[in-house]
Design a protein that fits this description.
The protein has 381 residues and is of the alpha/beta class. It folds into two domains: 244 residues, 3-Layer(aba) Sandwich (Aspartate Aminotransferase, domain 2); 125 residues, Aspartate Aminotransferase, domain 1, CATH 3.90.1150.10. The chain is 47% helix and 13% strand. The strands form three sheets. The chain has a seven-stranded mixed beta sheet, sandwiched between helices. Strands 5-6 form a two-stranded antiparallel ribbon. The longest helix is centred in the last third of the chain and has 22 residues.
């Protein structure tokens, strides 16, 4: 499983996902307390307003949007791919006045363009994706974009579904108001249970809104009754929460610093291996994600052909994208292991060769090995 998510899960997470307990009992209350404590570390926040969401990362995204925006709210959505466009669509569906800042494929928004858009639209809310999984673009100037938005009085919502715990993101230090993530990517938990964190300023907007929230399950005030008061909202996905607890525990045990270093080292090695095969990396190096690597497809080869062949012949799953001429290799959490990279580069090279694309498989594997070895030597210094 080397696609863009879900990713393989550790044994401890799988075991926790088999357990069912009382969703309103004392044990569950202790689990929830620990989940929030560990999540604060992963989000790098001291905020009290950390909640779980019984749904995918998109449900957490919708919780953020539907609690902060309503008819008449001015929203600026910075759109540079499929998932950043999804936030704009969600804002439009709750009746917000949405303006999009459309960014060319494989590029990030310039600070000048963002400043001009903010000045022109005066938004109450700005939405942006930290890592656009669809085209593997890393919005590397996120911190500076948040500063521009905050200076204009806007709240900032950040999708960190594929970057949380794989790349540095500091909610409090950067001034982010809402961060959302799914469990099934960097955290290496199961799909369907997600996390969201609100700043005090964002929570105050949620608490004082006068327009009723059109979403009942995703109403953050109702969710608070379970996540902070051990009271009833709806029947919580207890097994999924226990799995998330174990996934967060493993992240905390490894530490973010070591986890970031592991992802960077493995991503650079994977990129070296792919390039040495003779294939083109899709995204410029300056804005390339660590967690998902995009590979441009040669003429005459489709993503469906590559994904089907590598799965059927070599038992490796990678992903296409949403109409783009690329395939994507995920290396998040449990994917991000050296043995997985060797198997994937070998399988990709063999697949391309089988499909009539000229590649240099020995050079690809050698480059992967050399990069990993160099990274190990650097880490020991």
């Amino acid at each position: 499983m080397m696609g863009a998510g879900p990713v393989p899960i550790p044994d401890a997470v799988a075991k926790a996902n088999t357990v069912v307990i009382n969703h309103l009992g004392d044990t569950m209350a202790r689990v929830i307390h620990q989940v929030k404590t560990m999540a604060r570390y992963v989000f790098q926040t001291r905020s009290n307003w950390v909640l779980g969401v019984a749904g995918p990362g998109s449900a957490a995204m919708e919780m953020a949007i539907s609690n902060l925006a309503w008819p008449g709210t001015r929203v600026l959505s910075i759109v540079n791919g499929f998932f950043s466009q999804r936030m704009a669509e969600m804002a439009g569906r709750v009746g917000a006045e949405v303006t999009t800042l459309d960014v060319a494929d494989r590029q990030i928004a310039s600070l000048e363009a963002v400043a001009q858009a903010i000045e022109r639209t005066r938004p109450a809310v700005v939405t942006i994706v930290h890592g656009e999984t669809s085209n593997t673009v890393w919005n590397r100037e996120l911190k500076e974009i948040v500063q521009l938005a905050k200076a204009a009085g806007a709240l900032v919502v950040v999708d960190a579904v594929c970057t949380l715990s794989t790349m540095p993101l500091e909610m409090d230090a950067w001034g982010i108001d809402v961060v959302i993530t799914g469990g099934q990517k960097g955290l290496s938990s199961i799909p369907g249970v997600s996390l969201i964190a609100f700043s005090d300023a964002a929570w105050e907007r949620v608490r004082t809104r006068t327009a009723p929230n059109t979403h009942w399950c995703l109403d953050a005030i109702l969710a608070e009754n379970f996540w902070h008061n051990a009271g009833y909202h709806y029947t919580a996905p207890v097994s999924g929460v226990l799995a998330l607890h174990e996934a967060l525990r493993l992240v905390c045990t490894e530490t973010l610093e070591k986890r970031f270093a592991r992802h960077l080292r493995c991503s650079l090695a994977l990129q070296s291996g792919v390039s040495a095969l003779g294939l083109a990396l899709y995204t410029p190096q300056t804005c390339r994600l660590n967690s998902v690597v995009g590979i441009g497809l040669p003429e005459g080869v489709t993503a469906r052909e590559v994904c089907n062949h590598i799965s059927q012949q070599y038992q490796v799953e990678i992903a296409g994208s949403f109409g783009l001429p690329i395939v994507r290799i995920g290396q998040m959490g449990e994917q991000c292991r050296e043995h997985n990279l060797f198997r994937t580069v070998h399988a990709l090279g063999r697949t391309m060769s089988d499909l009539g694309v000229k590649v240099d498989l020995p050079a690809g594997v050698a480059a992967l090995e050399e990069s990993l070895s160099a990274g190990s030597r650097e880490a020991r210094r």
